[in-house]
Amino acid sequence: GIIASFEDLTHIWDSTEDVEPAADHNELFTDLHEYRNHSGVDDSPEVQNLLKEYQDKKYIKIFESYQAAVKYVGADLILSKILLIEMNKFDAASSSVIKRLRTVLDFASSGITDATELRYKTELPKAVDAIADALDLMTQCGPDEQLELLVLDVVDAFWLIPTKMCERRFMATQVKNRYIIFERTAQGSRSASLSFCTFIGLVGRCVQSLFYLPALDESGARSPFDLCMQIYIDDPLSVLKGTPYKRDLAVCVLIAAKLALGLPLAFHKAKRGQELPWIGVTLSINQSRAHMDA
Questions:
Q1: 187 and 180 in contact (C-beta within 8 Å)?
Q2: Is pLDDT above 90 for 272?
Q3: Could you give the CA distance from residue 160 to residue 157 in angstroms, rounded to a whole number?
């Protein structure tokens, strides 16, 4: 979205009103003598641990000198500061809320946000869409069939999308005396959500097609599927219908398909049942009722 455009998405997403970027990326500049990271970042052991983890996963490259980093990307770096965000996440394994740090590049501080083009906006599901799926499947339940919910997240979701080499000079930061180039979509960039939503939307359609039942479609059923998916950025939800055996089989097919497409799955956080949390609400379903609590 800075140098490379998203023109291929013209017939996929709706267009935004603010098409043109507010600044010219050619005019961006980082004064290395004046650059300072946000307070506490350089001396944070948590940041060092996260950078080591990202480096081991080949999400970032770390250079000991500015010249080496410039040689790699082929141009001067535009450095953005690092923001540390503390997030509270529900851990299914321990049934408790755990605190976790996330690094976000502060692209506003470097002017990159204003220089980023955002031509399209994604369309995200709402909790009522999941309720609608459940109601549709509910009308097709046989005597021995039940509904069930499944949440199985993708590990390091945004990190799965590589950045183009021509834009990596803008995906850079400095921690102490080392220079870091982000080779994957960095959280904090204006187009990160658009990139990942486009990718995961295609994955979702491919996987959803495996549960299409022509006989149901021809019969005029409210849903031609026995498993319906909703994906809110990196939070997927599936509503399943069938006997225990059929639901187990559907879960196996879902997992196998995502693994075959190269998605790392967070099995340790997976949740399955007739009541579970999703995008800020608690969903509960049975054979005759679908309900959500905020």
A1: no
A2: yes
A3: 6
Residues 139, 288: Cα–Cα separation, whole Å:
9
Examine the pLDDT at 193 and tell me if it is beyond 90: no
Per-residue pLDDT tens over the stretch 140-156: 888 899 999 999 999 98
pLDDT at 3 over 80: no
Q: What is the pLDDT of residue 95?
A: 66
Strands 81-91 and 178-182: unpaired
Between strands 275-278 and 281-285, the pairing is antiparallel
| CA 51/CA 163 separation, integer angstroms | 18
Q: Which two tokens stand for residue 176?
A: 């102490």
DSSP-derived secondary structure letter, 154: B
**CA distance linking residue 19 with residue 293, whole number of Å:** 38
Sign of torsion over alpha carbons 103, 204, 279, 284: negative
Two structure tokens written together for 225? 């599927």
Q: pLDDT (tens digit, 9 = 90+) per residue, 104-123?
A: 899 998 999 998 888 888 88
Strands 290-293 and 14-15 turn out to be: unpaired
User: What is d(CA 254, CA 73) in angstroms, rounded to the nearest whole number?
Assistant: 39
pLDDT at 19: 65
Residue that wins the pLDDT comparison between 220 and 235: 235
Q: Taking a C-beta distance cutoff of 8 angstroms, is the pair 210, 255 a contact?
A: no
Cβ neighbours for 202, distance < 8 A, ≥ 6 positions apart:
none
Q: 18 — phi, psi (to 5°)?
A: -90, 80
Angstrom distances, CA of residue 229 to CA of 102, 169, 232: 27, 37, 10
